[in-house]
Request: fold
Amino acid sequence: MSGAVTNQTKTIVDRRLQSLAVYVELERRIRQAENEQTLGFLLVNEIHSLSAYRQAVLWQSGSTGNGALIAVSGLANPEADAPYSAWVRRVAAALNVGAGQPAIPSVPPPSIPPGPRAVSTSDLPAALAQEWSHWLPEFALWVPLRSPRGAFHGGLLLARDHAWSDAECKLLGYLAETALHAWDALVLGQQRRLFTRLLPQGASKRKLWLGGIAAVVLLGLIPVHQTTLAPAEIIARDPVLIRAPVEGVVDRVEVSPNQEVVADQVLLSLDASRLANRLEVAQQALEVADAEYRQAAQQGLFDSRANAEVTLLQGRAEQHEAEVKYLQEMLERIVVRAPRPGIVIFDSVNDWLGRPVAIGERIMMLADPAATELELRVPVADAIALNEGARVRVFLNTDPHRPVDATLRFASYQAALTPEGILAYRLVATFPDDTRALRIGLKGTAKLYGDRTVLALYLLRRPLTSLRQVLGI
Reply:
């Protein structure tokens, strides 16, 4: 009896020693893996010698979608578009979230996640659980893999026809830690080797630091132009402002926006009824004054006392006559004509019909479409020293691939608020004579070039300005 017990104990010990030998051999092969592909192949195929299974999948999470399959047991290269691959990726993503970890890691965790756990259809959404029997055996084991250094994040899914024991789960958990350690070594080793190839032979850390500092200093001394960006708009050069000649109400607008007109063409007219009524009253008053004056002049021939009123009535008649002439001139001015050829610029005809206007109020603008210039608004925070004749390059929104050169002509001394509520300086630049015609109203972004400076001051201009404002130096 004792002999049978001894043989049984010996058999158990031999099995455990055999499992330990297999584990040690697997660990050695994993640590000696030459690349990530070899390591993935070992994890899905060679673990079978330690713990039998039917299918194994190595999954890695990604920044988008359901991640990717790194390796599948029995396949050299898994097809990413195959139905099985698509379903397994969704299952792995669901199990990864179910383990209490984010599907897409943003910051590497400080420690290894919890160990392997048995999974079933109850751990999956209903849509995935329905297809389980089509692709995998009943019993599955999820081994989460997440490197502390962020070299790998994913999991190993093993499936077979019978349940997994606690001893197998512990062994696979230990092996997973070994695999993560090897993965970190492979990734970091490749980075170190790449950095080593870039370094000169025999370079020391001190020389590298000194060389880096010298390179930064030399780069900081490179001369560059001070530049700044500003919103820009194509405007008319020397436009004619069409203003209201008299106080009244706009009756008709004879042109449409952006219409080309010729000299002396009618642009608009004001309502004449008010002036016509005043003229009619003034004419009647003039007739009465003329009649009184003639009557007094005739009486003065026979009555010397009537001569005293002749001069007064004559002045009153002349006053009414001057008022009539003034109103007649006003009636002639209610029709506004183009002083020169060009295009009329305003928003809409309906905005002006029936609108009361004051004397001198701007209604529209008459411009030459071939005579344009560039208006810029440089925010105070982005202002640099600019002189007349500075180079300007504008990138129009309608054609950003073909920048247009211009020359600075004017820069305001005082800043003013823009329609957007930004305090900015107004600048005007002119185009060369050979510049292609640019439509008035086009907008874009202009780059202005100032005096030369070194690269270090150019990059640190804003930080130094903020520092001086804070410290008051």
Remarks:
- The CA atoms of residues 41 and 75 lie 9 Å apart.
